[in-house]
Give the backbone structure.
Amino acid sequence: MRQLVRAALREDLGGRGDATSLALIRPSARSQGRIVARQEGVFCGGALVREVFRQCGRALRVTFHVRDGRRLRAGQCVATVEGPTRAILAGERVALNFLKRLSGIATLAARCAAAARKGNPRRPPAILDTRKTTPTLRAFEKHAVRCGGGRNHRAGLFDMVLIKDNHLAALARETTDPIGEAVRRARRRWPRLEVEVECDTLDQVRRAAAARPDFILLDNMPPPRMKRAIAIVNGRAKTEASGGITLSEISAIARTGVDFISVGALTHSPAALDFSLDLQPSPP
């Protein structure tokens, strides 16, 4: 986290620093900044905001009024920053950028989870993220998903075997049963890792269910076909819906009885949650 924040501040301040504040603000000036949510949503990013201001000046004092995962109302003050005015202004944009991004993810995750509960109140599927994250921000963005009530899929290529169409295409030259062979090879090589198979057709679902992976990913299937796929699996593996799923589609997909719904949009295209930092000079 320290290196990430250091790089972000270096990008914004360059070698000169905040040219405007250095020209206009006395070194002795002190202020209080109020970070205010301009929209309803879910708060996330407190640790990064604290680290931004810590690196901008050890004389700064940051006080949070909410914790990660808490719901916000429009106009709510989420934190105050007190200390040298120049230092507050130096960190303002970087801190707000982190906060907007992560709170936007958490807010979308909460909306997706609510849609899943609406579609299937008795057995709502879990909302999963994907690896479609911002480079270097994956751990923080996945934390934001959890703050919104979602769950994390694999962290990277290293912690789970996910057999996709390109893997199967590569194996098709070697065997007439690429799905079964892929699962067998994965089990031999990584006996402690969970195995998932991506399926585009019902025939692939039948072959995958027979191979007994831990999860079967139902890719780009409309709800009626997905329901048939789940019946074919018949409890032999957990099922995951995937493929460009949007918030408006989640309730209908939840009604199929699928176990998980993965939503790449959680981290590749969430709307930022709007925050502002309102500055008030401290008395001399």
